[in-house]
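User: Show me a protein chain along with its predicted structure.
Assistant: Here is one chain, sequence first, then C-alpha cells.
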Amino acid sequence: MNTLVPTGKELAHVLRLFTSNPSQAQALVNRAVAIARARVVLRQCTLGRYVHVGDNVHCTAEGDITIGERVQFFGGMLASELRCHAGARLSIGERSQFNYGFSIEAHQSVSLGRRCMIASLVRISDSHRGKTAPVVIGDDVWIAHGAIIEPGVEIGAGSVVSAGSVVTTSVPPGHLALGNPARVVRLEALGVS
C-alpha cells in the first residue's frame, strides 16, 4: 500500500479542515509535504513511516542507511547532512529529532537510538584523524548545540551532551558530558533524575 496516496476518508477530513480550521489544515499540508520530501531526499535509504524532512537536508548513501518511524529532520538556514560511505552502516531509531546544520558521517558504523534529540550544528563521525571506530548512541539521548561526538564513543541511554562539548570517551547511561574534552558527571548528582 502506498502511504503517499491519501484515502477518500483522509481527503474528506482535509477538506473539512480547510473550511473549519485553516491553520490546522495548513499544518497538515506542511506535514504531508515534509513526508513527501523525505521520500525524495532519503530515497536511497530504508525509511520507516512518517519520516519528515525540512528544507536543506542532504543525504549521500553509498552504504546502508536505516531511519525509523516518525524521525524528523528540521530544515534551517544551514544545510544538514547524512553521509554513509560504501560498506558502512548508519541507523537512526524511531521518533528521533534533528535540528538544522547537523552532520552525521559513517565510514564503518554509526547507530542512534530511539527518541534522540540532536541540536543544531552537532557533528557525529566514526572516523577522525586516522581513527575509525563505531559510534553508538543509546535511546533518549540529548546532544546539545555544537557538540562533537568522536570515533569509538558510546553514549548511554538517557544521557545529555552539553552545548559545545567534544566527546572523546564513552558516557555511561544517565550522565552528563560537558567540556572540551568532555568530562562526565552523573545526572543524579546534579539533582536531575
